[in-house]
Design a protein that fits this description.
The protein has 633 residues and is α+β, with helices and mostly antiparallel strands. It is built from 22 helices and 19 strands.
Length: 633
């Protein structure tokens, strides 16, 4: 297949598949006369997939790129120019071009993005309505350009030095390749501990980062240039009748579903007991699709029962795969992949419709009073503290477990990350500032955590309620009119009535469901069964922790010994602490062994290699023990 950009002939690579979900990695030497070593190219390709998929590889002097096409999104992900240049895309940007045809695929958008990245005129990136990332390479100038979407959900991980730049689609690849030096960055490590995830562009390794929301990065002549092509803070409040805005939002939702459906007649849907997924399901049916809903909630909870009630009322094909009570934030994509494999006898690539983050961007979860008034009064310290409390950020009880200096660093980084983001993206109405922060820092990890294992589950999300045009509209509305799902409920007045015809789950303090509903527990309530399951899950995390490594400059051994004792006697489930410690372990384990900093080469108060934990702690977790009788109640 061919097209043209700037008068040059463009050729698309033929993969022979209907579509793609892509995993990629590449390296570019600043000097094109420096050949990419064969071992480096082999290792780069070897780390893309753990399922044995064979990558496609593209090589030029001083440049090597490999990708795997898993067959999810429609359209080809790569195009080639006659002079050797090429462009590559992950995801489907859905450029909002005039008179966009229903059949338009990302291979139609890719030439426009390629031209924009090579010319530096990136206005076309602002037209994207969906999550994506893109790569553009010009071998005649040894120029590499990278770009990510408006919230940075499909990001690119980068590590650069004075010889080459390495880039990839998944953090697991960055932490695995042997030719990249990964020295621990104490501030990056502290930020990850504070947010319990990678946040923004910050990584725990020196010289490494990931592209921020709305960002392009170019490498040419040994120089790096980072640029943000879009700012959510520039969207002004439009004072219009709220009913008119709600009607417009409803039409955008319908259009967003049709745009992503592309005339397909079959759709797989994550169906929960809340509003977001059933709204998508109703719009899919309205667009003529046959919907198969899948639910993965604990049995006999509101999340399961309300999903079942809606599926019956709407006439959806529906299946339940209950998870144990006490399950917290599983990998939903892996659950769905396992379910589909059990039905068909094989694992296959699939797009699943998902209500990703609509509860925040449309329902304004976490944004209730007093957050908006505090921001508008410019009491930013109090607003940041309120957001941290509401999102449960930081590390509760960290003084019991963390070394004092690292604890101080972590708390400082938590507030500094939020503060710097607010200063960078402060809208005309400060009341919207924390929503923008969440969109760019809080939402992407919800997506990237599942996508780290896409090579194993082959599932990608279709997220019509995260459509960037809908998000733009939401940011033009006075936030006071949106908090607590107030605007959401007005929008639903203009959407299929089946959505609100049967009971749904609501958030505490938000607009309640007015329909009578059975008195059943939510998926979050802690029953004795849930408690037992949570303890067993924490046992597994603890065993991994005690295998090390950990640093005594990060963790207080006596503090760890105390929480281990509390856990083993079933006094307290310390899973919260164990998960955080295990995350820090992962980064320490991935740091380059030959280059791990010691006390003499790093900042005071941090050593990547600390003393091993007392053997007595490790022995107790595997020893026979008396179990608190409360566990068996």
């Amino acid at each position: 297949m061919a097209g043209s950009v700037g008068g040059r002939r463009i050729f698309f690579a033929e993969s022979g598949k209907e579509g793609t979900m892509t995993i990629f990695a590449g390296v570019m030497f600043h000097d094109p006369r420096s050949p990419v070593p064969t071992d480096m190219a082999k290792e780069l390709a070897a780390h893309l997939s753990r399922a044995g998929d064979e990558p496609v590889q593209i090589a030029h002097p001083g440049f090597h790129f490999a990708y795997i096409d898993l067959g999810v999104h429609p359209g080809e992900p790569v195009l080639h120019e006659q002079d050797g240049g090429f462009a590559f895309i992950s995801g489907d940007p859905l450029l909002d071009v005039p008179n966009r045809a229903e059949s338009r695929a990302r291979e139609d958008d890719l030439p426009l993005i390629h031209r924009a990245l090579q010319s530096g005129h990136d206005e076309v990136l602002r037209l994207a309505r969906e999550m994506f990332c893109a790569i553009s390479f010009d071998p005649t100038r040894q120029r590499l350009a990278l770009a990510t979407d408006k919230v940075g959900a499909r990001t690119i991980y980068v590590h650069s030095n004075d010889r080459f730049v390495f880039f990839c689609s998944h953090f697991r690849i960055l932490e695995s390749v042997g030719f990249v030096e990964r020295q621990i960055d104490p501030d990056g490590l502290a930020a990850a501990a504070a947010f319990n995830t990678l946040v923004g562009s910050i990584l725990p390794f020196k010289g490494a980062y990931r592209l921020h929301a709305c960002e392009t990065v170019t490498f040419e002549d040994g120089q790096q240039r980072r640029h943000r092509y879009w700012s959510w803070a520039n969207i002004a409040t439009r004072h219009r009748p709220i009913d008119d805005v709600a009607r417009e939002a409803a039409e955008i939702v319908r259009e967003s579903v049709r745009l992503r459906l592309r005339g397909d007649r079959d759709a797989v849907l994550f169906l929960s007991g809340g509003l977001d997924s059933r709204l998508i399901g109703a719009c899919l049916q309205e667009a003529g699709a046959e919907v198969r809903g899948y639910n993965f909630a604990p049995a006999d909870t509101t999340d399961q029962v309300f999903a079942r009630i809606f599926a019956k009322a709407a006439g959806l094909r529906y299946a339940e795969y209950p998870v144990p009570k006490g399950t917290a934030y599983p990998n939903w994509s892996m659950l769905l992949s396992d379910a589909l494999a059990s039905e068909t006898g094989r694992r296959r690539p699939v797009r699943v419709w998902h209500g990703f983050d609509a509860s925040v961007t449309v329902g304004y979860v976490h944004m209730q009073d007093p957050l908006v008034p505090l921001l508008r009064e410019r009491r930013f310290d109090a607003a940041v503290d309120e957001y941290i409390r509401r999102r449960d950020l930081g590390w509760k009880g960290n003084e019991r477990v963390l070394a004092p200096r690292f604890s101080t660093r972590m708390i400082g980084n938590l507030k500094n990350v939020i503060w710097s983001a607010l200063c960078d993206q402060m809208p005309e109405d400060p009341g919207k500032a924390m929503l923008i922060f969440h969109m760019e820092h809080g939402a992407p990890p919800l997506y990237t955590s599942d996508m780290e294992d896409v090579d194993l589950h082959c599932v990608d999300w279709v997220t019509p309620l995260a459509d960037f045009r809908l998000t733009e509209l939401m940011l033009s509305v006075d936030p006071v009119q949106c908090v607590g799902h107030a605007f959401y409920m007005k929008m639903l007045e203009h959407l299929p009535t089946i959505v609100t015809s049967v009971p749904w789950q609501t958030y505490p303090g938000h607009v309640p469901c007015p329909l009578p509903a059975p008195a059943i527990p939510t998926q979050w309530e802690r029953s004795p069964e849930a408690r037992r399951f949570a303890f067993r899950r924490a046992d597994g995390i603890l065993r991994g922790i005690l295998r090390g490594p950990l640093s005594t400059d990060i963790i207080r051994p006596i503090g760890l010994a105390r929480i281990v004792a509390q856990h083993l006697t079933r006094m307290t489930n310390c899973e919260w602490h164990f998960k955080r410690i295990a995350q820090l372990q992962r980064y320490l384990r991935a740091s380059t062994p030959a280059r791990r900093p010691t006390a003499s080469t790093t900042e005071p108060g941090f050593r990547a290699e600390g003393r091993a934990f007392p053997e007595a702690i490790a022995s107790t977790v595997n020893a026979p023990r008396a179990v608190n009788s409360a566990e068996h109640r």
